[in-house]
Amino acid sequence: MMGFSIKGIDHIQLAAPEGSEEQAREFFGDLLGLKEISKPENLQKRDGCWFVCGNQEIHIGVQEGFLPAKKAHPGLVVENLGELRQSLQNKGVIIKEDLPIEGRNRFFVDDPFGNRVEFLEFLK
């Protein structure tokens, strides 16, 4: 018997190239509608930016020698997935389809840095 239990996920971190905070704000803030939050005072000297996503956070961290995550990705749960799809397409974001998963509609996009991001909606 373990004396601990993992309760959930607090945040995910996506890597980004140096100087990319404004692109992150445009994509995650303006395009996806996520609210940016301040980093804790002791981390504010570091580059990057943080966003609230439901009860969790998405941290965009600057990585030296950045390479995009082409397979690893966050899966973001969406209400009105079709509306998000249309909004992204209207802004020129390329939608990528993948194999279906029972009980869910989903699609993928690349963030401005080439990281894979999944959006999904559970079927009722």
What does this structure look like?
With 124 residues, the protein is an alpha/beta fold. The protein has one domain: Roll (2,3-Dihydroxybiphenyl 1,2-Dioxygenase, domain 1), CATH 3.10.180. 17% of the residues lie in helices and 31% in strands. It contains 2 helices and 7 strands. The protein has a 4-stranded mixed beta sheet, covered by helices on one side. Strands 5-7-6 form a 3-stranded mixed beta sheet, with no helix packed on it. It is globular and about 40 Å long.
Q: What is the CATH architecture term? A: Roll
The percentage helix is 10-25%
Give a short account of the largest sheet: 4 strands, mixed
Uncertain runs are: none
Question: What's the short version?
Answer:
Helix content is 17%, strand content 31%.
Q: Key terms for this structure?
A:
single chain, 124 residues, alpha/beta, 2,3-Dihydroxybiphenyl 1,2-Dioxygenase, domain 1, 3-stranded mixed sheet, 2 helices, globular
Layout of strands and helices, then pairs:
Blueprint: E1 11-16, H1 21-31, E2 35-37, E3 49-53, E4 56-62, E5 75-77, H2 81-90, E6 104-110, E7 116-122
Parallel strand pairs: 1-4, 5-7
Antiparallel strand pairs: 2-3, 3-4, 6-7
